[in-house]
Predict the 3D structure of the following.
Amino acid sequence: MAIGKLGAPPVVGQPPNTLLTRPTWTEGLFSWLTTVDHKRLGILYLVTSFIFFGLGSIEALLIRLQLAIPDNTLLSPDFYNQMFTMHGVTMVFLAIMPMGIGLANYFVPLQIGARDLAFPRLNAFGYWVYFVGGLFIYTSLFLGGAPDVGWVAYAPLTSLSNNPGLGTDFYMIGLFVSGIGTLVTAMNLIVTVINMRAPGMTMMRVPMFTWMMLITSFLIIFAFPPLTVALFQVMMDRTFDTLFYVPAAGAMPILWQHLFWIFGHPEVYIIILPAFGVISEVIPTFSRKPLFGYPVIILSGIFIGFMGFAVWTHHMFTTGLGPVVNTAFALTSMVIGIPTGIKVFNWLGTIWGGKVRLTTSMLYAIAFLVTFTVGGITGIMLAVPPFTAQAHDTYFVVAHFHFVMGGGALLAFISGLYYWFPKITGKLLDERLGKLTFWIMVPSFWLIFFPQHFAGLMGMPRRTQTFVPGIGLEIWNLLSTVGALIMGVGLILFVLNIILGFVRGKPAGNDPWDARTLEWSTTSPPPYYDFDRQPVVNDRDAHWVQKYPESVHGERVPESASEPYDRGGAHIPGQSWYPFVAALALLPFSYGWLYDNMWVVGISMLVVTVATYAWALEGVGGKHIPVGDALDADTERGEGGRS
Ligand code: HEM
Ligand SMILES: [Cu+2]
């Protein structure tokens, strides 16, 4: 028996992914640990990232409660440092970024008419490595203390002599591991979008969410390696006494800031570009108009992608790089505002003259537009070095990035969830409860972060456990904290709406919004093989032109074009244990490195290597299923076929 077969679940192909129409819980945990189906992995990403978002929100609430009044003693200075560090790390690496990747996992193959990502097992590995990295970081709270060096972890604060606790090691090792997951998923998405599009789907017909995910994946490929190198350098300094960031040995700690922000600024685009993609799906659907300036949005996205690597020192304007460097990066930072602004006008142009339906999803999309634009404007202000010399490390900066990352990405992803929940579940969310959450969440979000601009302009420093009374900061902080409490209620109602929708939402049907792209052309939820027949694409908004053929521009691709794809049936890869085992072995690897036990590190690496070889040798497994005409024949013959 080939090694790959050991322990692998029976190769009968993945059960129909009717997660919510026929509970698959009965299929047990194993079917989730071994799944390689992009839809299930997408759901795992979304659930996991929202759990981390919940943890990050609790940390944020603790921070705000501590800062509700001056000289408060609710949190000790050290625990406060741990809370804002964990909050920042969680929100950026474990919550908001994976939300985008989760939506991409579920919808990119469906949008391009493919049946899965190019490398399904690598995809599973990517998810479990992210999970293992996040879990490892959170065990720090129970194993001596969480990281307390800020989400930026500047050297030499992170040296063993300055920070002997394990917190910094949890940060370095945890992000080193979870970053591997992000990198392999990005590679997978790039290969999928370039190689697995349906017949007729040229690049200028690819839906905008998928386009933005393609650009995002390239940013990940170029941004994560510098961070991974920097993390490994500090891991080596703290474990093997190397001297990468030891000033006494002639090292220049500012290297860390360069490497961190060469990653860090593109990271904000890795967070916001998927959000741009979601908004570019939602607004045309609920304006009943094609996306205004489709090619321009793509070009501006690509331009942002490139320029995103040319602005990083605007985070270092006060580190003494000099007027020449500051001026150059001030210019590039301002220039990047242009393509972003163009997008805002494209979305407004799409709404303009449209038949707008103010669904909950559309309301969040409009709130995104307003909130993100305000955040963008304060971004331009912060691109001006003299202004940043005043505002750097104050609450003005905290307000700015929450407006763009929180108000931007978070609101967009919530809009995306109200939009795509029916496709994932086959059920509709309650629109009345949805609108109630909207009118609680969005105003309270503004109540948290808008006052922080003024606290910052008055000089309130960030990353400080308390603030002095009597200089006018009290009102801004109290408003901000009240806002955080109200937003907490909104988030709970949002989760309630998701659960109620999941349990007893009304049936949604395949295309409840009369939408435009291919994911709406298959069932809700989609069968595990995604499409009964290989879709053929005749124009942009492929599903729209399927429904309204009169709207096709130019020559039609004949339906028969799908035939060659369907003739041999579709191959759906089987479940596999090895991606899960290979990823799980990175947990003992992390603890081995944390406690300087290189035996454990070595053995874990051996398990990773063996599991990876086993995965390569286990063969494709899974099964061929009849699709297209063969499926019809099968259905007629009553032999399984359509699920
Ligand atoms: C849900 C509501 C949220 C609240 C109330 C909140 C509140 C805060 C506060 C008060 C700080 C400053 C702590 C300090 O400097 O002392 C902070 C820092 C931060 N927040 Fe949030 N936040 C929220 C959501 C988010 C989201 C969605 C993101 C998205 C990525 C995010 C990312 C960050 C980052 C990166 C930091 C910097 C941490 C550091 O200085 O090391 N936050 N947050
Ligand atoms: Cu930046």
Notes: Residues 57, 60, 63-64, 84-85, 87-88, 91-92, 96, 150-151, 398, 402, 405-406, 410, 448, 462-463, 484, 487 surround protoporphyrin IX containing FE (ligand 1) (CB under 6 Å).
